[in-house]
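note to self — DONT lose this again. spent like an hour looking for the file last time. sequence + predicted structure for the chain T wanted, 236 res
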Amino acid sequence: MIMDGRNADSGKMDEIALLERRAGLLNRRSFLAGSAMGLGALTLGGCAISDGMSLAEAEKVYGPVPEEKFPIPAVDVTKVDPKYFRKTVRYETKEAPGTIIVDPGNYYVYRIEEDGAATRYGANVGRDGFRWNGDAYVGRKSEWATWTPPKEMIKRQPEAAKYARGMPGGLDNPLGARTLHLYQNGVYTLYTIYASSDPESIGSGVTSGCVGLLSQDMIHLYNRTPVKTKVVVLPA
């Protein structure tokens, strides 16, 4: 998850497939990451305490965001299973309010709230062989970041060479509108929680270990997440 054009971490990232829908650009549905980790994690669960969104409500929540540097279009909510719409749920945990918990087995991300509640977001997660679990924290936050393909990717996919000095932020950038960079012990893990504009990816294992939320959900989470926030990634 490279944020600067000459970031030294770029060589460690996994390959992103070419964007399926935009010729010459890189696919958000096959996001990249670093090596797997084997740390322990909590086993937690959530049950609903509020009714789910209707389609009409979802169209408002996931509507266009024109005030952004790169205006974000509305999500086609008909391409998202309604169970992945943003929702307030009951969630029993010993983690402090504000903690982010990723549940890759169920394709959810939770932000712990007060009084045993959590905000739940639908997510895409790592595909088989690329999932990891453990504790981390948000070491950096980025808006409309630059993405740089690693040298290994350029060697395999020469068409990516045009981004060797960095792909500027924008709607076609795989990092999307917002990115939370995950760290452990002061070291960037190369894993992120990022903004996806691909509604069909939500509820799927399509990345190389990173976690994607719909752009509107990611902005909602990003605005409520300071640097140093604890992140717990559960076993799949």
